[in-house]
Structures are given as structure tokens and as C-alpha cells.
Amino acid sequence: MTALLSLAFKQLVRHPLRTLLTVLGVGSGMFLFTSVETLQRSLASVTEETAADTTLVVYRENRFCPMASQLPEHYAEEIRDIPNVREVIPIKIIVNNCGASLDVITFRGVPGELLTKFAPEIEIIEGGDSEWKKRSDAALLGEQFAKRRGLKPGDKFDAVGITVYVAGIIRSPFPQDNNVAYVHLDFLQQASRTGLGIVTQFNVRVDKSSDLKPVAEAIDSQFKSDQQPTNTRPEKAFFAETAGQLIELIGLTRWLGLGAVLAVIALVANSILLMVRSRVKENAVLRTLGYPAKAIMFLVLSEGGMLGLAGGIVGAGLAWGFLRWQSFTMGSEGHTLAILPEVSTALFAIAGALVLGILASIHPAFVAIRQPIVKSLRS
Amino acid sequence: MTMISCKAITKSYTKGVNTITPLENLSLEVPRGDFLALMGPSGSGKTTLLNLISGIDTPTSGILEIDGEDIARFSRRQLTQWRARKVGYIFQLYHLIPVLTAFENVELPLLITSLSRAERRRKAEAALDIVGLSDRSHHTPGELSGGQEQRVAIARAIVADPALLVADEPTGDLDRESATHILGLLGSLAREHGKTIVMVTHDARAAASADRTLHLEKGKLLTMDPNLTTV
Questions:
Q1: Any CB–CB contact under 8 A between B118 and chain A?
Q2: In this complex, do A377 and B109 lie within 8 Å of one another by their Cβ atoms?
Q3: Is the Cβ pair A290, B80 closer than 8 Å?
Q4: What is the number of structural domains in chain A?
Q5: Which of the residue ranges A43-52, A223-232, B52-61, B213-222 would you say has the lowest mean pLDDT?
Q6: Mean pLDDT across the stretch A305-319?
Q7: Does residue A317 sit in the same domain as residue A169?
Q8: B125-131 long-range Cβ contacts below 8 angstroms, 24+ apart
Q9: Between B51, B95, B99, which is nearest A10 by CB?
Q10: Residue B190's domain spans which residues?
Q11: Helix pair angle (B117-130, B146-158), 10° resolution
Q12: Which residues of B touch A373 (CB under 8 A)?
């Protein structure tokens, strides 16, 4: 089998132009597929609820954009008194664009002393928290946010009419947190002219996943008759609901992924079929030499598989590198979706390309063995 | 000892509404180690007979025993396995795989055996040595002359050490000098290596290098060398 694989490999590398063109075609398809798959998986990671989820988002009822959701900051104290609430953090959010956008700048204003308590998973990888504590205009930038704009500790930058001082760079296991800038709540309230005491939302941590529903109901019930009634949902459900347009758009890309898969199948099948037709005599000679039908089929399937594999590695590798390098952030209604590819996505695409290459070669493999030897030798 | 035994072999096939019978009720026996030439005009059935003897085609009726095995009764799979063990085929147009080197072309029949890489290398090098092309083993067919290509094809035919070699006009595409070299090589394979060789040719001078000559016309044995055994 190794010897036959080696023979198939030689056939590919010694027909460099045909192989290169096919690999580029497959690579293009798999680039698209990997990008779409990355989008889908990124979306799934922020919308599909799991048993480990313990965060609720309290938003102004019937509001969807951070500009419109304005809640009194003192709600935090009342929420904190509700049973099974572990922590509450008032958050002011300012974005440069409330609509769907590929480059969203998001400021999250939080009480400085609560940040590490609320999100203990955050790690400061550059700079330190002394500047953060000392300066009112200090900002902790998510790793991707800083990378995209070439910012480092000590820099100042201006966006959405707000000028901040970069106190540090943070890293979070949650990709969307790596694409925002954390600033002090009071600073952001003043800078955004909404005034002190007004926040966009409260993020509420509960003790366990099963507490999400009762606590959400309790919060909404508490402020039902208030001037600013609330709508409380689990964080992922909140994202899924408020970023509906974004999700619809991403849902549409499934068809692009399917199209890419079909294009890869058609391309490999066409290439292998042309190869089989141009090698009718070669295959007949091999059969004359005693090659069984299964060996001929194995050779054809191997070439298809190798073309798929090479195209998969090229396409998925390029997509992975490109998306990592660009670190796109999709945003809608103030919510960000970091489009970060995982190694597993690239591996899935490569394995998929290999399988597609083999599947696409099944028909050509049968064509290769169907014709009688004598007729093939005369053709 | 008989190597090839054909008893009342008939081959016919349908083309459109017509039934064509390139070979009809043909019988012959060829002893082991013979170098036999098959001659005859186009359409006389000589290539059909060669294809039957080499197991790439099957007779419509009759008994076809090669080295004691009735290959006419073999299934397609058995026939394939039998070809790999027993027959080396030499084509008029060499039919080497253009992207492979001479060595790799010669090694081809061994890739489907259980031989180790080292054993395959040793056998392929030995076959190239027999045809005098050891120094061209890394050349591709495009870098070889017609005569050299045919010698590579002969090396490929003998590398698995088959008892029977069949050659379909092996000198038909070669100049006189190369043809003489190839015929000499085939003769030595019969004499020195004990191969039974059946060669189809149009060329009387090529046929003269064989031990015996059989003439075919319209699918029937027309004349034959008196030394050839017939049934």
C-alpha cells in the first residue's frame, strides 16, 4: 500500500501544473469553507448556552442598542440583595457603531475595583494594574484590540470622541473580551455625556446555572413598575436576541460553506476524471502487468485524496493565518463577535478536504477499471 | 514440456449487428523455452491470439492451457493474479509511464507484490542490467531513444521473472539497428533465461530471429514451421 501511495504521489508531483491548479482551486474552496466554519463556531461559542453559564445581562426593556439602554446605576445595590446573586457589575458601553460592522470599537466602563472580581479570568499581559488604579483615564485593552491598532502601554488613543491612556494589555479566554477596552465607569459616564449614575447594563453572576431563570425573573419583577423597567436574560441568550441581524447574516454564510464544499467536489472530480481519461492506456498497461482493479482504484482514490489534502492544508492554513492576523470583530447593536479560528476548525477543514477528495474520485476510479484492457490499449 | 496448449480456441465478438470472429477453432502447442513468431496480415487474428495467451482477453470457446493451467476458466480476478505471476507483456509502443524513471517503470510490476523495498530495488536493477541499461536507470522515457525505451519495457516484462513473454510487434517502431538489438535480447532471454516467447510481427527479418514461425490468416492457422507441435 505504501508503494502504491508513493506511486500516486509521484504522479501528482510530476504533473506539477495540473496539480498546482487543482490544489489552488481546492485551496480557494477550503479557504472559504474554513472562514465560514470559523464564523459559525465563533457565533456558536457566544450564543449556545451551556451548563457552566452563570451570567445574566440586565438591559433596559425594549432597547437593543447601548446608546438607548440607560439604567440607573443604583439598581446594582438592589440586585445584589436578591438571593443567589454572587456579584453585580454595572457596565457602561460606548461603541463607534451600533449597526452591523466588521471593525467595532467598544469601551466598557466598569468600576475599577470590581473588574478583577467580576472577571477573574482576565490576565494582564503587558503593563500593570498600578496605572489602571492611579489614572482615571486609564484603559486596559484586550489583546486583539491593541494588536489591531498597534497600541502598547503608555500610548494614548482617541475613539468615539473619548481619549484614553493605555495602562495595560489584557488577555481573556473569552475571545470577545480580547476585542474591547475596559475603562473606569465614572470616566466613561462623564466622557460620554450621559452623566454619572447612568449605565448601559448590569452583568450579574449567579451561584449556579440553575439560578439563572429564577434570578432573572426576580430582577425583572423588582423593576417592573420602575421608571426604567428591565429585561434580564442569560448572557448568551441576550447576545442571540440583540444581535439577531448579525446572526441572520452569519446564518446565510452556511450556504457559502456548502457552495465551497460542492465546488471542491466538482473540481477534484473533474480533475481526476480528466486524469483518468488521459491515462486510459497507462491504466490498461498496469492491468496488463497484473494490477488488480482494487489497486487501480486505490491509485485513483489516493490521487484524489492527496489533492484534497493538499488543497485543504493550503486553504485551511491560509484562512487560519489570515483570520488570526486580521482578528476581525463583527459587531451589531454594541455586541461584539470575535472571529477567531481554532486549530480544531482548521483540522476539521483539512480532514473534510481529504474526504471530499476521496469521494470526488469514486466515480473516476470506476471509470478507470470499467473498460476492457484490450479496448483501452487500442484507444 | 508444453508451455502453451490451445485446443479449438475460438474468439468472437459482436460489433453492431455483426459477429466478428478473429480466431476460429485454432489449436497449437508451444514447448517451454521456445521463441515463436506469429505472422500474418492485419486482421488475421495474431494479436487476438497474443491477447488470449497473455490473459488480457478470454476465448469464447476452447481450452487454453498455459503452464498446465486452463486460464480460459479463470475468473477476472484469477486471471489478473495469474498475469502478475506468469506473463510479461512487451508492447509495440513500449507504453512506459512518462513521468516515471526507467528504474521506476521497471519496478512497477513489483509494487503489487509483498517484496520489500530493498528486494524490489535489487530485482529492478538486475532486470535493467540484463537489458544493458543500468546507467540509464534515472532517465525518464522522454530522455531515452526508442530502442532504449523498448529495452526498459523488456526489463519491466522480465522483472517479476515470468515464464512467458509476449511481444506485440516489439520492433515495429524501431530503426533497423535498434530492432536487431531488441531481437537479440529476446533471443537471449529464451536461450539463456529459459523464457517462452511469443512475438507478433509483420517483419520477416524479425520473424527469422525466432526459433519458429506461425502464419495466421483470417483467424486460422495457415502454414507453420514443421518443428511446431500441432494438435
A1: no
A2: no
A3: yes
A4: 2
A5: A43-52
A6: 95
A7: no
A8: B126/B159, B127/B155, B127/B156, B127/B158, B127/B159, B128/B102, B128/B103, B128/B152, B128/B155, B130/B155, B130/B158, B130/B189, B130/B193, B131/B155, B131/B185
A9: B99
A10: 33-58+75-224
A11: 130
A12: 56-57
Does B54 lie at the interface with A, CB-CB under 8 angstroms? Answer: yes
Q: Does residue B174 belong to any structural domain of this protein?
A: yes
Residues A42 and A74 reside in one and the same domain: no
Mark yes or no for CB contact A3/B156 under 8 Å.
no
CA–CA min distance A374, chain B (Å): 7
pLDDT top residue among A337 and B69: B69
Q: B209 CB contacts (<8 Å, ≥6 apart)?
A: B35, B37, B183, B184, B186, B187
With contacts defined as CB-CB under 8 Å, which chain B residues touch A14?
Answer: 99-100
The answer as to whether B16 is a domain residue is no
Check if the beta carbon of residue B185 is closer than 8 Å to that of residue B9.
no
Question: Residues A288, A369: one domain?
Answer: yes
Are B109 and A290 within 8 A, CB to CB?
yes
Question: Does residue A185 share a domain with residue A272?
Answer: no
Contact yes or no for A11 and B99 at CB 8 A: yes
Q: Is residue B68 part of a domain?
A: no
Residue B226: what pLDDT?
Answer: 47
Interface pTM, i.e. ipTM: 0.90
pTM of the model: 0.79
- pLDDT at A100 exceeding the cut of 70: no
Helix or strand (DSSP H, E) at A245: helix A244-278
Q: Identify whether B15 is part of a domain.
A: no
In which band, very low, low, confident or very high, does the pLDDT at B60 lie, cut at 50, 70 and 90? very high
Find, in chain B, the residue whose alpha carbon is nearest to that of A4: B111
Contact assignment for A289 to B56 by CB distance below 8 Å: no
Residue for grid cell 500500500: A1
Q: What is the pLDDT of residues B73-113, one digit of tens each?
A: 999 899 999 999 999 999 888 899 999 999 999 999 999 99
Shortest distance between the Cα of B180 and any Cα of chain A, in A, equals 25
Which member of A3, A288, A290 has the closest CB to residue B81?
A290
Range of the domain at A301: 2-46+246-378
Domain count, chain B: 1
SS3 A327: coil
Residue B36 pLDDT > 80 = yes
Instruction: Name beta bridge partners: A166.
Output: A139
Of A281, A290, A374, the CB nearest to B57: A374
- Is the CA virtual torsion B222, B226, B229, B231 positive or negative? positive
Same domain, A82 and A42: no
